[in-house]
Amino acid sequence: MGLLGTLLTFPVSGPVLTAKAAIKTILNEAERQLYDEGAIREQLAELEHAHRSGAIDEPEFAEQEEALLERLLEARRWRLEKGQQGDAP
User: Fold this and answer.
1) Is 51 left (phi over 0), alpha (psi -120 to 50) or beta?
2) Residue 30 falls within a domain, yes or no?
3) 75 in a structural domain
4) What are the backbone angles phi and psi of residue 53, rounded to the nearest 5°?
5) Are the C-beta atoms of residues 65 and 44 closer than 8 Å to each other?
6) Is residue 71 part of a domain?
7) What's the angle, vertex CA 28, arms to CA 69 and CA 34, rounded to 5?
8) Domain range for residue 62?
9) Does residue 1 form part of some domain?
10) What is the per-residue pLDDT across 6-18, written as a single tens digit (0 to 9) for each?
11) Number of domains in the chain
């Protein structure tokens, strides 16, 4: 598409491209927060503290700990996949 075509379609394509870029940015930030290993470790520490202080019982602790450990493993897999994708030409 030449310059004229680009100029004629800009009123439609401009907002679409901007929206796509915004959605991609939001998705990247959401993934970064979801797979943040430091935040997951912090949640594990808070969970352990709550368990030691008696705020939660053993079955609830075990269930939540298992979920957080699974998230931690998933975060590590995600990081490795992202690293491999980043290395690809």
Assistant:
1) alpha
2) no
3) yes
4) -80, -5
5) yes
6) yes
7) 20
8) 57-89
9) no
10) 777 877 777 888 8
11) 1
Q: Quick one: pLDDT at residue 9?
A: 81
Alpha carbon distance 71, 27 (integer Å) = 18
| pTM check: above 0.85 | no
Residues in Cβ contact with 75 at an 8 Å cutoff, skipping those fewer than 6 apart: 34, 35, 36, 37, 40
pLDDT number for residue 84: 63
* Predicted local confidence at residue 6, as pLDDT: 76
Q: What is the DSSP string of the chain?
A: --HHHHHHHHHHHHHHHHHHHHHHHHHHHHHHHHT-HHHHHHHHHHHHHHHHTTSS-HHHHHHHHHHHHHHHHHHHHHHHHHHHHHH--
Task: Dump pLDDT digits (tens) for 18-57.
Answer: 889 999 999 999 988 888 999 999 999 999 999 999 999 9
Joined tokens for residue 51 = 């368990």
